[in-house]
Protein 1
Amino acid sequence: MELFCLPKPLQRATVLARPSKKIKSPYLADIEIDGKEILCHTAALGCCGYIIPGAIVWVLEKPDSIAKSTHEIYLIERDGLLVGCHPLVANKIASSLLKSQLVLPIGEIIQEVKFDTCRFDFASSDKQKIIEVKSVPMADYYDGTLKELKEFMKSEPTTKVAIFPFGKRKVELISPRALKHVESLTKLVQDHTCVLLFIIQRTDVESFTITKLDPVYKTAVFAAKEAGVLIKAICICWDNQRAYFEKEVPVVY
C-alpha cells in the first residue's frame, strides 16, 4: 500500500563531506552527482554515522530554491537497502497510516496540537486521541555498547532490531524532547487515547526496541505502556520515490 510519494524520482549521489567544506553547517553536506560537486541539505544531520564521506545517498533537487543548497537527502543506501532518513517525511507517512485506519480507528485528524506544555504531531478532531510520531532510520543486530555488540556478533546473528533513540553511546539522555513527549502522554492517557508511533523507515528488521543506552527514556516508555499508552512500530518500504506500508513489528522491552 502506497503511503507517500515524492514529486519526482530521487538521484543517486555520493557524500563527499559533512559538514560542507564550503559552509560549516551540520545541516549541509557536499555531495557528488555524475562527477559534479553539489551543496546538499541534510535534515537528519549525520544520521548517527550513516551520512559520512563515501556514503551513497538519494537526493531530491529543490524546485526553484533560493537556499544555498540545491538538493536534499531523503534516503541512504546501506548494503543495497534504501533507508528513509528525512524526519519530516515520517509525519507525512504517519498521516497516511492514520487516514487509512492502520494505526487505530480514528476519523478526521488535525496536526500540531498542543496539550498542556507539549505539542503533538496529530490528534483526532475531537481531541480525544493523541498521536506522537518518531522517525526510526537506525537498526543493528544488537542493542548495546560497542563491546557488547562485538561479542554478540561472534554468534553470527541474522536478524536486526530497529532502535530508538540512537545517538552518542556516552550521553545519559539522548533525546530530552522525546522524553518530554512520552511523559506527557503518560499523564494524558488518563483521559485520552494516546499513541506513540514509531515509523521505521527500512524493512530489514523483525522487531523494535527502545535502546538500553538511554535508560531514562526506556523506563519512561515502559511506564507509558503500563499506564495505557499504545506503543506501535511500523516498517516502511522505500523505492527511489515512494514509501509503502510493509509490516507492523513487535515492540521488545
Protein 2
Amino acid sequence: MKVPLLDLKAQLQPLSDEIHAAVAEVINSTTYIMGPKVEELEQRLAEYCGVKHCIGVSSGTDALLVGLMALEIKPGDIVITTPYSFFASAGVVARLGGTPMLVEIDSLTFNMDPEALRQWFVKNSDKISRVKAIIPVHLFGQAANMDPIMEIARQYGIPVIEDTCQAIGTTYPSKNGTKVVGGIGLMGSLSFFPSKNLGGIGDGGMVTCNDDAFADKVRKLRNHGAHPKYYHSLIGGNFRLDPIQAAVLLVKLPHLNNWHSARRDNAHYYDENLHVPGLAKPNAVYGRQHHIYNQYVVTVPNRRDELRNFLNQNNIGNEVYYPVPFHLQECFQYLGYKQGDFVKSEHGAQHSIALPIYPELTHEMQDQVIAKIVEFYSLAPRP
C-alpha cells in the first residue's frame, strides 16, 4: 500500500466543483489585485483567529518580513529566534540587515525555551539595547510557551512577532485564559502554503494583530507604502494576497476545524499504536486539543536516514523538518556559531522524521506506516 506524506487530491476532490466555481468567479470579475475576496477572507480570518485585524499578504515569509519592516528593523538591530524552524524565521531578519540571534529550543516541543531566552538577556546585557523583536515559532502546530516569553519581552520592552505559519487555530492555555496564537504578541504570521492545514493553490499569507496603528502601517507596506494610490508615505513592497488564493481559502475555511479534528484523531492513533523502544512521539504538552498537528514529528533513536530510505522503498511518505539548524547553515556562518552550540536543535535535526498525518489518512494506511517502522527496527542493523 502506498501512503503519501500528503495527499492534496483527497482534500480537493469533494471541494472541486466549489473551488472551480470560486476561481471562475474571480476570473470573470476581472478584479485580479486585492478586491472583495481578499477583504472577505481578512474579515473571516480575523473572526476565526480572535484578532482585530488580518492583512492578506503574498506568503507567510512576507508576513514576517513586512512585520519586521513595520518595526523598522535596520542593520545592527538584533532579532531573537530559535535555530530550529523553516528558514524564513531567521532569513527575513538578515534580509533587512538585522542580526538573527538564536536561543535554544525545548526538547519536548521543539519550540523556544523561555529559560534559554531569559539566560540570553542575562549573558548579553551589552546587546539588549539593540534587540528590536523576539520571534517565537509555534512549530508543527503546537504553541510555544508564551506566558513566560511575553513576561520577558515586557520586562525589556521588546515586541513579540509570533511565527504562526504552521499553527492557524492553535490555542494556548495562558494563565489569563485560553488564547489563539497570532493574537498574543504584537502580530502573528499565517502561511497558506499548500501543505498547511489551511492551504491555498499557491503562495499566500496573512498578518494577524490587534494594534490599529501597526495594522495600518502593514497595509501600506504591503502595497509599496501607498495610501491613497500613488501617494507613498513609506517605502514598502508588493506583498499583496492574490484574490484567487483568497477565493479558494474561503471555500476551505469552513472545513478547517474538521480537518484539525481529523489530524488530532490520526495523532491519537499513532500515539496509541506506534511503539518502538527509544522512539519519542510528539508531546502535546498542553493537551491534544490545543495542537493542530500541521506535522506529526517523531524522534527516532538512531539510523534516521536508513529508516527514511526503508520507508521510501516501501512507499511510505516521510520528511525531515529540518535537517540543518540555522546556526549551521552556510549563509549564517558569519554569525559565529559552531557545532555544539545548540545541542537540542542539532539533535532534532539529526533524529526527527515527519510521518503522514493529513485529515484523509485512514487507520489502515497508518497501520502500514506503523508496521514498516516496527519492521525496520526489528531488523538487525547493517554492519
Protein 3
Amino acid sequence: MKKTNRRLKLYGFNNLTKTLSFNFYDICYAKTNRHREEYLRYIDETYSAGRLTQVLTDVAALVGAKVLNVAHQDYEPRGASVTMLISEEPELTESIIDNEDIDDYRTSIVAHLDKSHITAHTYPESHPDGGISTFRADIDVSTCGRISPLKALNFLISSFDEDIVIMDYRVRGFTRDVKGKKYYIDHSSNSIQDFLSRKTKQIYQMIDVNVYQENIFHTKMMLRNFDIDNYLFGQGKEGFSNKELTKIEKQLKKEMTEIFYGTNIN
C-alpha cells in the first residue's frame, strides 16, 4: 500500500458521521421447557444492563470519548438496553486523509470525537416448537469527526463471541476543505473485513454486500467450525441418542443458515 503524507486543511469542523452497527446472534438447543427458561435466565444475567454498560464504557474509552450520560434498563420478562451519550475531545483544526493515517487509527486514537452516542439492546427468545433458542444483541456506535468507530470493532466481536455477527458501517454527510471541495469519506475502505483481526478471520466465514458509491459496507460472519456439544444447553451429548443428535444438528444448522442469509428455508 502506497503511503503519503498529504494533509488536507479543512474549512471548519470535520462533519462526517460514521456509524458501526452490529447484530450478534447466539443459538442453542434447549430440550425441555425448563432448559429453555434456564437459557433465557442465563442470557438475562450474562447480558444484563450492568454488563452492557461496562462493555459500552470500554468502547467509549477505546475511541477516546468522554461519557456524559448513561441510561440503562433491564426489562421484564426479558431483555436489557443501554444508551450512552458521549462527547468530543478538544477539537483539532485539520484532518489527515491518507493511507498512513488509516493504518494508524486501527491501533491507536488519532483524533477527537464529537458529541454522539453508543447504544445496546438485547432480544432473547425461543422457538415455539423444536427446542431452538436464540439471543440477539444490537450494538450501535456512532461518532463524528476524524476518528472511526471501527477502532472498537474487534473488541466488540471478542466481547460477545457469538455464532453469527452481522455488521453495517456507513459514513454519512460530507466535510469541506478550505477551497470548498466536498469529501464524503475521509479514509480508504474496501470492506469491514479490512479492519478485522487475523484471529476473527480464521474462525469466521464471511460475505460482503457493499455499496461503495454510498459509502455503505455490510459484512456477515458465521463460525466456521460446528461442534454440537457447544450448542446443547442443560445437558451434553451423552443425554441424546445418535439419531436425536443428527436431528438436532440439522435444526441448529438450519436456524444459523436462515439467520446468516436472512431467508427462511423450507
Protein 4
Amino acid sequence: MKKVLNLAMYLIVASLLFVSCSDDDNDSVQVVSVDGIYVLNEGSTNGSISLIDKSTDEVSNDYFKAVNDLPLGAFPQSMAFSDTYALIVVTTSTGAGYVEVVDKSTFKHVGSITNLSYPREITVVGDKAYVSNGSGATAGDKNDILVIDLTSLELVKTLKVGAGPEKMVLSGDKLYVANSGGWSNADKTISVIDINTNVVAETIEVKDCPKDMVVDAKGNVWVYSAGVPDYSNYPDVSYTNSGISKITAKSSTVTSFELSNITSTGIKNIAISSDLEEVYYMSDAVYAMDINATALPTTKFINKTFYGIDVNPEDGSIWCCEASYGVDGSVIVYNKDGEEEKSFAVGIMPNSTTFSY
C-alpha cells in the first residue's frame, strides 16, 4: 500500500469544499450499471475505479473518469455506500486527502470533503459517515474519527482516538476503530465508539499494529494485527507481536492467536464469509478459520497471498486483489472451496473490492 504519512502535516478540518461536476461523459469507455462490483486501484500517480457488471462480468476500467471526465486522484484507499451517495477516500501524494462524493445512481461527482490530514477508511452508519483520519505518531495527537452528516455533508464531530486509525467496523451500537500506529512507533489498541452518543466509550488492547477487522455472526470483532516491522535485515522484513484477536462483543474479552509467518504486504488482510461463520485471513497464504475454533488452522486454504481480500455477500465467493507496483493488476475470484473460478484485469495496484447491489 502506498503509505505517504507525513508526521509533520496536519490540517484541522475546518471546511467542506464542493467542486461542480462535469456533464461530459467519456464515450470511449462503455458505462455499465452503477449497481455492481467496484475495485479500488491505488495507481502509481492517479488512482482509478474498475466497475464489474455482476451479470455479464464486463469490466469498465477507469470508471470514475469515464463518467465525470476528470481523474479520481491518487491514491484511493476505501469506499462505502449510503442510500444516496458513494463515498471514496483518497489519500494524496503529500499525505493529505479528501473524500470524493458521487451520486449513487449515476456515479456523477457531487462534491469533495476536503482538508483532511491523512484519511484512510470510511464506514456509513445510517445518515452519518465515519472517516478515520490520522497523521500523528502518538495516541490522541492528530488522530481522529471524523463524523460527517450525510444529509448536509458537513462535519458534525471530531473524536480523538489512538495513533494511526485505520479500519472501522460496526457491531451493535458500537463502532470499533483499529489504531495501527505511525512510522516511528506502534499502537495496539481498538477504540470503541458509542454511535448513540458519538463518544469513545472504551479502549481495548490487542496485538501490535491492528489494521483490519471483520464482525462475525455473534457480533464478535476479529482483528488482524500486522505486528511491528523489523527492517534491520532488509529486504527481509520480520514482524513481532502480530496475530489475530477475537473481541467478544458482550464482554470486550480478547482472545489472541500468534502469527509468525507473515509475508503478505497488503493492509486489507482479513475477510468474513457471507454467512459470517468463517474468517479468512492472510499470512504466508490465505487461511480459513471457523469462528468457534480455539486455534489457528494449519492447512492453507489458498496457497497465495494478495494485496487485499473481500467476500461477495451474495454468493460467498472470495475476491482477491493481485497487485504489483506500476503495472495493471487483477482480481482473482475463488469459490467457497478455495478453487479459482475467474479473474478480471483491472487498474494499477488494486487494494479492495466493494459490492453494491
